[in-house]
Write a structure and sequence with these properties.
Low-confidence stretches: 1-19, 33-46, 48-56, 195-199
Mean pLDDT: 77
Order of helices and strands: HHEEEEEEEEEEE
Number of strands: 11
Structural class: mainly beta
Number of helices: 2
Shape: elongated
Largest sheet: 6 strands, antiparallel
Length: 199
Amino acid sequence: MANNFKNNRGIDENPKNNENVDPEVEAMVCNQNYLQQGPGPAYGCPDPRMAQSRMQRCPSTSYANYSISTTAVTNGTFLPLTLTSTGTTNYNLSSGITVTLPAGCVYLITYTVQAVLPDIGVFTVVPVINNTLNNNLSSTVNSYTGGTGTFSVSGSFLVTAEQATTLALQVVTDQTTTGAVTGNLSIVAVSSIYQPTCF
């Protein structure tokens, strides 16, 4: 009779008892068994260090940098992005405004935007994640002179992409139209969601 190692979710934690074991589940189970039992074969995982290699999904060279450049924007405009450099990961850029972050990583997002504002008013850049405005991650500047001036906003935040996640930057402003807008967007994968805990 096969040993029963079902967890509280009803999943048999002995990979030998599962014909179609998800590699990620097997890796996490092997890793857990390593913690509990120490070195050595663990329920069909000859070397628990295999778990570490399977769980490391984000290479250190996973990054992308984009430039932002347009002659003017109005309220609701999505900032145009142009890829300037990238590492080993393919970040899909859709319609020149939306980046798709591959699943399995925690990403550090950093942006800086400069805008020429001709009137007194407000200029805000709001990250849009999975088509949802995230005002808590936004950055705002108030122009305080009636003449033309260049103002800058910037921000940084983390995105945990358990699934493929879309990212864009949208302008919210009371300016009828702005002058030139420039800047940059940086995306760096800083860690895997499935980090091993025993090494």
